[in-house]
Amino acid sequence: MDFKIDINCDVGEGVGNEAALLPLISSCNIACGGHAGTVESMTNVALLAKENNVKIGAHPSYPDKANFGRQSMNIELLALKESLRDQLKVFSSILYENRLKLNHIKPHGALYNDLATNDDLAVFFLETIKAYKKEVFLYVPYASQIASKAIEQNFKIKYEAFGDRKYNSDLTLVSRKLPRAVIKSPEEVLQQLLSIIQKNEVEPLGGPVVSLSADTFCIHGDTSNALQILAYLSKELPNHNIEISNA
Description:
globular, 36% helix, seven-stranded parallel beta barrel, two-stranded antiparallel sheet, 10 strands, 18% strand
């Protein structure tokens, strides 16, 4: 194969499709209580990941289950730090009890998007998770504030791109409030992935192509036809000399 890629899914968010999704991916991001997730769901999904040889990541969020973590929060930074550290502590304890390894941290939803563009928040977040700096990767958007600050502070990072989301020209994600924000056509998802993998570029909504490099590619587990998309990718990517692998 010419390329080996990591495909990740956000899971443990109440959809209940993990048993079907995990055999088709190589890493996962498990909700740890901020926007979704319970001790039971974290444990169950982590054990499923182990069964399927899928790398395990924490998926912390703004503490906002009412909005599924998809709206920016006006929250005191101390309260946010306490919440994020509590989310990661609970999740890490579950992994330790089950002799599982934490591979990465990927912020969720609005927090992920805010960290991409807000320099001060990016510095705050890295300070909040500094205890994990030597042990885990941080999944971050390409050419983002969080990526730049993480590199400066010698965090281990992996650039992430999205197969099932449309981009703006500045590489932010198109708002989910807009009709074309989520890509549901498996064929269109494949074409976007091929463009990023083979050409290091993506065609944003309403603009010319822009540079985009990635080490890991996300298909959202709560996309309505996520299983259909992943099954299609598993079948079609090898035809382009691309292998899904967690190596």
